[in-house]
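Obj: model holo form, ligand = heme C.
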Amino acid sequence: MRWAALLLALAAPAGAEVMPSVVAPPEPGSVSITDGLAAWARVYEVVSHPRCANCHTGSDHRPMWSGPEYDNAGPHGMNIIAGESRMGIETLPCATCHVTASTLDSAPHAAPNAMIDWRLAPVEMEWFGLTSAQVCAQMSDPERNGDRDWIELARHLQEDAAHGGFVAWGFQPGGDRQPAPHGLQSHIDDVLKWGAAGQPCPE
Ligand code: HEC
Ligand code: HEC
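Output (holo structure tokens):
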């Protein structure tokens, strides 16, 4: 079975230390729609959290400053626009302030860093301010999710974490920022449950 082969490939990343894993994905169809929808509701609590959604913004190319750390939710200060590149190459590169660092630590109100180059998610992966049904449709659509099935989505989360990427940062943002809820391994497990239930979406 295809997912079983993928699972084998995922189970033992070479040289990885204790990293979250895509452990034993449930058999497709083995999770009820009800449980799949409950798992999706938790997935949405993560992806709509400011630590994730502030970068998954739409076609105005603006990163957002929102969450309990910010007095008012609004576009990134200093008139930052990420442009078509989503890295600010056209104006002021994100990396001017968001350095690519060897750890995820950052001080309060300093520009957050990650171990990969800071940038916005592609426009079609927009989440900020969208409903659970809208984000669910986006994440289920290969045209808009980087051509990934549900196991590949889970694998993306795992691999990002292994490289100190943005998902790792969202769950461990440092600088007194509130992390995304539930924890990374639970989030991966919820994506797999949702997938095994057939990627059901709320109305
Ligand atoms: C610094 C900006 C940034 C932050 C913060 C961020 N992401 Fe992303 N995200 C990206 C970029 C860039 C991509 C595109 C990379 C790719 O598809 O390989 C992406 C792609 C994704 C994808 C691929 C599939 C899809 O449909 O969007 C998932 C899943 C994802 N991010 C989850 C998360 C989660 C969960 C969090 C919070 C814990 C998060 N991201 C926080 C920038 C960010
Ligand atoms: C001039 C410096 C500077 C540049 C350039 C810059 N940022 Fe920032 N960014 C900051 C600072 C400082 C903060 C933290 C503000 C705070 O905590 O009050 C921040 C915070 C953020 C946040 C919020 C993180 C969170 O959830 O708390 C996002 C998202 C973000 N930046 C994305 C970007 C993107 C994408 C680019 C490039 C298009 C960019 N920034 C360019 C300085 C900068």
